């Protein structure tokens, strides 16, 4: 395992039990932002039964499946935000403890493994394009692959995008939510040395800075993302949308029809 991947595994194993409470506000904001962008994401969603049948996401035809791959799923932000519009969410993450929280939350919500379940896995290993843990048929042919706030942690983001597109059905959608290009975060302690002790940090700032050693990229520009989507085979209908707080939503469709 690459050193930075191991750093991520260990960092997020430690963070897992507190992640949802630490990021409660951010999780709520991103959930709302995702649900406001169902049309932008462009999947032929199934309707949310609670919303009734008037949403235009394809009705409640029980025979139709909409399958979502949530890569670097963590505790399940992306899955839970989009589950009302899908029939199955499959999570994959490098951290056993994040996967544990994902599955415990799904079970607490009364969901079956068929509806929402995560496993430990890594598609970003250069010489292992089909990891054994992710080789079963239900890890392929997804309608949408989502990657929420994980892209900036990868050694080779273009490789990760390619590997996710390989798991889409023809015409399936790749959605990446990450940061726009920004100044590098420095470690919390280093920041204290520069500023002098006694300066407060808000909790969110502290958590991001303490995760600085797990970050490989300081956000992504639109042109970088466009190049990555094109070389991954998902440049068709490429779109990039920025949220006020520097988070971007990038989508593109897999080339194969
Ligand atoms: C900031 S968290 C985001 C989690 C979740 N998607 C969310 O939006 O809340 C980043 C996640 O990426 C995972 N991760 C880092 N490198 C990974 C890799 N190579 N393969 C799979 N997951 C990885 C971490 O374990 C962590 O759960």
TrEMBL record:
Database matches in CDD domains: AdoMet_MTases
GO biological process: methylation
Database matches in Gene3D superfamilies: Vaccinia Virus protein VP39
Keyword entries, A-Z: Methyltransferase, Transferase
Taxonomic superkingdom: Eukaryota
UniProt GO MF annotations: methyltransferase activity
InterPro entries (UniProt xref): SAM-dependent_MTases_sf
Official protein name in the record: Methyltransferase C1347.09
Organism name: Apiospora phragmitis
Sequence similarity: Belongs to the methyltransferase superfamily. LaeA methyltransferase family.
